[in-house]
Each structure stands twice: as C-alpha cells, then as structure tokens.
User: Fold this.
Amino acid sequence: MTTHSFPRRAFLQAAAAVLLHRPGRAWSAGAHVPVEDWRGAPVGSTGVPAGWQKYETPGGHPAYDFTVIEDAGRRALHMKSTAEHSTIAKDVQADLAATPILAWQWRVLSLPQGADLRNRATSDATGHIFAIWPRFPALVRSRLIGYVWDPMLPIGTVIPSRKTGAVTFIVARRGEAGLGQWLDERRNVADDYRNVFGEAPPPLPVLALSIDTNDTRSSAEAMFGRLELQPR
Assistant:
C-alpha cells in the first residue's frame, strides 16, 4: 500500500456513500446472511462485479484485474494484481449481535514477494477482506479490520497498519501451507472488534475485498468464493 493509498479520503468517502445511497435490510435472527456468491454476473465477466463499487484511491493505480469464474465446482472472483492496488466494497448492513461470524471461501495462489505488514515500505497483501465501519471525519475516525494471508506472521497476529490508524490487520492464514487450495474461513467479527477497539461493535455496514502489490512492485493472485454472515 502506498502512502496515498487505502484507506485514504476517497475510499472512506466512497464507503460512506454506500451507506447513504443504499437502504438497510432486515434479517431474521439466527439466519445465515448471504453477502456474495458471484452469480449476479456471467462467468467470464471482468472488472468490478455487479453489486460492488470500485475505489480509485490516490496512488493505488487500480487495475481491477478481476474475473468471475467457475473453479472446482464453485463460482468465484479471480483477483490478480501486479504493482497496483485494487479494492471493491459492498453494502451489508449486518447486525453483528445476530450474525457475528464472517465466513468466506478463498483460494490464494500467490503472495506478494517481499511483502511485510510490519514495515511501511512493504505493506502489501494478496487477496484479503475488510470489515469497514465508516465514521466521520473519515480519515481519523473510520475503523477497518482486515483479514489477511501473511507470508510470515503467526495466525491470530493483530497488527495495526503502519500507514494509518484507521486499519488493523488480523492474520487468518500464513506462509505457503494451503496455497492453491480452496479453504473455508470463519472469523468472529464481533469478538475481533471488541479485542481491537475495546467496546461492543455497532452494526457492520460494509465489506470490502482488496489485493495490494504496489509497494513491493510484485504480483499476487487469489480467488474468493461464497461470502456470508452467520450466527454464532
């Protein structure tokens, strides 16, 4: 991530726009809440998928090298990145008291060479997912938790972004074990919010998918399958 990249003003204002222009939804207690299964776009479609918004953050030079595919019997979004940073976001308006679990399927094919979230100059990550709480003023009060596959940090590591106080990363997977395989992931976003911010979470307004290689000038590749929110 470059100094002027995610989550600078353009991204956070766009996330706020998602909230202002889309109506909230009511879900029954205990129900699984679908977020995305990629069936809203035909296989082979490229760029920003239907139902998502792009965020052309300053310095990111986003390519949105995304393709809706069928892989191993599932619909997925195939994300590629080379020396750029692409992020898309979607309104979810989730009640974390009812559905605190964020569940997703991912197949990470490659990690950015030389990436290290501990250093500002190498703060890149392969395909990852953000829970976002836009707050005003956006640059200093918004809150983001990013779930990443890191080359070296232990699973469960909580690491604040070296570039902005708005972002905290949590390592969901590490290293080369599992690369190239479809894996199911589950995180209790409500518990993670409490651990990071020291208070009960508000409803979750926005989820985002991102892939980031512009600091290391390298490449990365990942796929995301079904995303949903689940009861505890």
